[in-house]
Design brief:
With 153 residues, the protein is of the alpha+beta class. The protein contains three helices and four strands. A four-stranded antiparallel beta sheet has the order 1-2-3-4. The longest helix is centred in the first third of the chain and has 56 residues.
Length: 153
Protein backbone atom coordinates (compact mmCIF):
# COMPACT_ATOMS: atom_id res chain seq x y z
CA UNK A 1 0.00 0.00 0.00
CA UNK A 2 1.34 3.42 -0.99
CA UNK A 3 1.74 6.24 1.51
CA UNK A 4 -0.08 9.38 0.56
CA UNK A 5 2.17 12.20 -0.74
CA UNK A 6 0.51 14.73 1.53
CA UNK A 7 1.90 12.97 4.59
CA UNK A 8 5.45 13.22 3.18
CA UNK A 9 5.05 16.95 2.55
CA UNK A 10 3.86 17.53 6.12
CA UNK A 11 6.85 15.58 7.45
CA UNK A 12 9.17 17.73 5.34
CA UNK A 13 7.56 20.95 6.57
CA UNK A 14 7.87 19.83 10.21
CA UNK A 15 11.55 18.98 9.68
CA UNK A 16 12.22 22.39 8.09
CA UNK A 17 10.42 24.19 10.94
CA UNK A 18 12.52 22.32 13.51
CA UNK A 19 15.73 23.24 11.68
CA UNK A 20 14.67 26.91 11.49
CA UNK A 21 13.89 27.01 15.22
CA UNK A 22 17.24 25.41 16.12
CA UNK A 23 19.08 27.81 13.82
CA UNK A 24 17.26 30.80 15.32
CA UNK A 25 18.56 29.76 18.75
CA UNK A 26 22.06 28.76 17.64
CA UNK A 27 23.08 31.89 15.70
CA UNK A 28 22.63 34.39 18.58
CA UNK A 29 24.38 31.98 20.97
CA UNK A 30 27.31 31.70 18.55
CA UNK A 31 27.48 35.50 18.14
CA UNK A 32 27.57 35.93 21.93
CA UNK A 33 30.36 33.35 22.13
CA UNK A 34 32.40 35.26 19.52
CA UNK A 35 31.81 38.59 21.29
CA UNK A 36 32.88 37.08 24.62
CA UNK A 37 36.12 35.89 23.01
CA UNK A 38 36.78 39.46 21.84
CA UNK A 39 36.22 40.74 25.37
CA UNK A 40 38.74 38.13 26.57
CA UNK A 41 41.35 39.73 24.32
CA UNK A 42 40.63 43.13 25.85
CA UNK A 43 41.13 41.66 29.33
CA UNK A 44 44.47 40.16 28.27
CA UNK A 45 45.68 43.47 26.82
CA UNK A 46 44.53 45.26 29.96
CA UNK A 47 46.42 42.82 32.21
CA UNK A 48 49.70 43.65 30.41
CA UNK A 49 49.05 47.39 30.51
CA UNK A 50 48.13 47.28 34.19
CA UNK A 51 51.41 45.54 35.04
CA UNK A 52 53.32 48.15 33.03
CA UNK A 53 51.48 51.07 34.65
CA UNK A 54 51.96 49.70 38.16
CA UNK A 55 55.70 49.12 37.57
CA UNK A 56 56.06 52.56 36.02
CA UNK A 57 54.36 54.13 39.03
CA UNK A 58 56.62 52.29 41.46
CA UNK A 59 59.83 53.26 39.64
CA UNK A 60 58.91 56.81 38.54
CA UNK A 61 56.52 57.84 41.33
CA UNK A 62 53.88 58.84 38.77
CA UNK A 63 51.99 57.43 35.80
CA UNK A 64 53.13 58.03 32.21
CA UNK A 65 52.08 61.44 30.95
CA UNK A 66 51.34 60.39 27.38
CA UNK A 67 50.22 57.38 25.39
CA UNK A 68 53.52 57.60 23.50
CA UNK A 69 55.40 56.40 26.59
CA UNK A 70 53.42 53.15 26.44
CA UNK A 71 54.05 52.78 22.71
CA UNK A 72 57.80 53.47 23.16
CA UNK A 73 57.96 50.65 25.70
CA UNK A 74 56.17 48.31 23.24
CA UNK A 75 53.03 48.10 25.35
CA UNK A 76 50.26 46.85 23.06
CA UNK A 77 47.13 48.98 22.86
CA UNK A 78 45.74 47.09 19.87
CA UNK A 79 45.15 43.45 19.10
CA UNK A 80 43.35 41.17 16.70
CA UNK A 81 39.89 42.40 17.72
CA UNK A 82 40.91 45.60 19.47
CA UNK A 83 41.27 48.32 16.87
CA UNK A 84 42.10 51.30 19.02
CA UNK A 85 43.48 51.71 22.51
CA UNK A 86 43.49 55.10 24.23
CA UNK A 87 45.53 56.06 27.30
CA UNK A 88 45.01 59.28 29.23
CA UNK A 89 47.19 60.29 32.15
CA UNK A 90 44.25 61.87 33.92
CA UNK A 91 44.23 62.27 36.78
CA UNK A 92 43.27 59.54 37.26
CA UNK A 93 45.00 57.56 34.52
CA UNK A 94 42.55 55.67 32.27
CA UNK A 95 42.70 53.20 29.38
CA UNK A 96 39.92 52.58 26.87
CA UNK A 97 39.79 49.91 24.15
CA UNK A 98 37.59 49.86 21.05
CA UNK A 99 36.48 46.42 19.91
CA UNK A 100 36.00 45.36 16.32
CA UNK A 101 32.38 44.26 16.71
CA UNK A 102 31.67 42.34 13.48
CA UNK A 103 30.75 44.73 10.65
CA UNK A 104 28.79 47.20 12.73
CA UNK A 105 29.33 50.89 12.12
CA UNK A 106 30.38 51.63 15.68
CA UNK A 107 32.91 49.73 17.71
CA UNK A 108 31.96 49.26 21.33
CA UNK A 109 34.41 50.25 24.02
CA UNK A 110 35.59 49.00 27.37
CA UNK A 111 38.02 50.65 29.75
CA UNK A 112 39.62 50.96 33.17
CA UNK A 113 40.42 53.95 35.37
CA UNK A 114 42.48 54.09 38.53
CA UNK A 115 40.36 54.66 41.60
CA UNK A 116 41.72 57.79 43.27
CA UNK A 117 43.20 57.57 46.76
CA UNK A 118 43.06 53.79 47.12
CA UNK A 119 45.77 51.84 48.88
CA UNK A 120 46.65 49.42 47.45
CA UNK A 121 46.02 50.82 43.99
CA UNK A 122 42.69 49.70 42.54
CA UNK A 123 41.37 49.99 39.01
CA UNK A 124 37.74 50.10 38.00
CA UNK A 125 36.07 49.13 34.73
CA UNK A 126 32.65 50.41 35.82
CA UNK A 127 31.61 53.21 33.51
CA UNK A 128 29.80 54.98 36.35
CA UNK A 129 33.12 55.41 38.21
CA UNK A 130 34.98 57.05 35.31
CA UNK A 131 35.77 60.77 35.28
CA UNK A 132 33.20 62.71 33.24
CA UNK A 133 35.61 63.68 30.43
CA UNK A 134 36.85 60.10 30.05
CA UNK A 135 33.30 58.70 29.95
CA UNK A 136 32.82 60.71 26.77
CA UNK A 137 35.95 59.20 25.17
CA UNK A 138 34.94 55.67 26.13
CA UNK A 139 31.46 55.65 24.51
CA UNK A 140 29.50 53.67 23.38
CA UNK A 141 30.34 51.35 26.26
CA UNK A 142 30.09 47.61 25.90
CA UNK A 143 26.73 45.99 26.67
CA UNK A 144 26.63 44.80 30.27
CA UNK A 145 25.98 41.17 29.32
CA UNK A 146 29.49 40.94 27.81
CA UNK A 147 31.29 42.67 30.67
CA UNK A 148 33.23 40.69 33.28
CA UNK A 149 31.36 40.43 36.61
CA UNK A 150 33.71 42.94 38.25
CA UNK A 151 32.68 45.59 35.67
CA UNK A 152 28.94 45.33 36.06
CA UNK A 153 27.19 48.08 37.97
Amino acid sequence: MKRPKLFAIIELIVAVVIIVILTAKAIPAYNDYVKNSKVAEVKMLWADIKVFLDKYYVTEGRYPTTEQVLRDKAVKLEGTYVTNGIYTSGPPPCVCFELDWFNEDTGYKMGWCRKPDTKPVKWSCKLGEFPVDFKFQCQPYLDEKYLPESCKL
